[in-house]
């Protein structure tokens, strides 16, 4: 009986030693600089900025999308790159050009058709999930999964229409976190050259 107790005690000592070794050893990969109260605050500020960005879509009165980006920020949608705030503004404002009021039609052009009635405004929501935000002082990276939901017509149930991933780099400008680069990707693989 005494031998059994010694073996059990030895087993507990080995188990405790293993637990201590696991907890005391540094992680195999250090994705984040030293965790501090400020880095936790910065992570939350970045998550708030991402959330505001996505809540902005579908709103009648929305904040300009380019205001979420640094002056030299970049939006990457597939193979299209929009650089600087003016380029990013163009990415979101794709309305066809209309001639100035009172302008005469070009010679030989057909008379202008009556303007189409405004499209009925339907709900459009975007959710974000699984945020991974890594802060390195005044720069950071983030990854989120986004899912878009739309209605076909007012009163219809919402339908999931799109899902993808956003990979972003961030820079802190005058105390505010802004996108430096924001890249939308489908699938599970990060963009080429992505580093946390």
How does this structure look, described?
This protein has a six-stranded mixed β-sheet with strand order 2-1-6-5-4-3. Strand 4 (139-150) and strand 5 form a beta hairpin. The chain has three helices and six strands. The chain has 196 residues and is an alpha+beta fold. Helix content is 27%, strand content 32%. The model is unreliable at 12-29 and 96-112 (pLDDT under 50). The chain is globular, with a radius of gyration of 26 Å. It has helices at residues 2-24, 37-56, 84-92; strands at residues 69-77, 80-83, 124-136, 139-150, 159-173, 176-185.
SSE inventory with pairings:
Elements: H1 2-24, H2 37-56, E1 69-77, E2 80-83, H3 84-92, E3 124-136, E4 139-150, E5 159-173, E6 176-185
Parallel strand pairs: 1-6
Antiparallel strand pairs: 1-2, 3-4, 4-5, 5-6
Which descriptor suits the 3D outline? globular
Order of strands, widest sheet: 2-1-6-5-4-3
Rg calc: 26 Å
N-C termini distance: 55 Å
State the share of residues found in helices, binned by percent: 25-40%
Keywords summarizing the entry:
196 residues; alpha+beta; 32% strand
Summary?
The protein has 196 residues and is an alpha+beta fold.
């Amino acid at each position: 009986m005494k031998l059994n107790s010694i073996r059990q005690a030895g087993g507990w000592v080995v188990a405790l030693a293993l637990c201590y070794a696991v907890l005391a050893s540094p992680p195999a990969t250090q994705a984040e600089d030293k965790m501090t109260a400020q880095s936790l605050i910065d992570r939350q500020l970045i998550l708030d900025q991402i959330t505001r960005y996505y809540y902005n879509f579908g709103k009648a009165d929305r904040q300009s999308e380019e205001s979420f980006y640094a002056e030299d920020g970049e939006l990457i949608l597939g193979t299209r790159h929009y650089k600087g705030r003016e380029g990013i503004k163009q990415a979101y404002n794709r309305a066809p050009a209309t001639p100035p009021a009172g302008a005469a039609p070009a010679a030989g052009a057909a008379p202008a058709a009556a303007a189409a009635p405004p499209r009925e405004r339907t709900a459009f929501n975007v959710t974000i999930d699984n945020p991974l935000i890594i802060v390195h002082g005044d720069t950071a990276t983030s990854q989120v999964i986004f899912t878009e939901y739309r209605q076909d017509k007012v009163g219809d149930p919402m339908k999931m229409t799109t899902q993808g991933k956003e990979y972003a780099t961030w820079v802190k400008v005058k105390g505010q976190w802004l996108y430096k680069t924001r890249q939308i990707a489908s699938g599970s693989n990060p963009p080429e050259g992505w580093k946390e």
